Amino acid sequence: MGKLILPFVGMIMAELAQVGLIILSKQVMAKGMSNFIFIFYSNSLASLILLPSSFFIHRFNRPPITFSTIIGCFLLGLLGFMAQAFGYAGINYSSATLSTALLNLVPGFTFVLAVLFRLEQLDWRNSSSLAKSLGTIVSIAGAFVATLYKGPAILTGLLPTNSSPQPLLSQDPNWILGGLFLAADCVMASAFIIVQAYVLKKFPAEFIVVFFYCFFVAIQSAVTCLVMERDIGAWSLEPKQRLLTVLYSAVFGSVFQVSVTTWCLRQTGPVFVSMFKPIGIVISVVIGVAFLGDAFYLGSLVGATVIVLGFYSVLWGKARDIEQVSLESRGKQTPLLKENNTEEI
Question: CB within 8 A of 227, min separation 6: which ones?
Answer without folding.
Answer: none
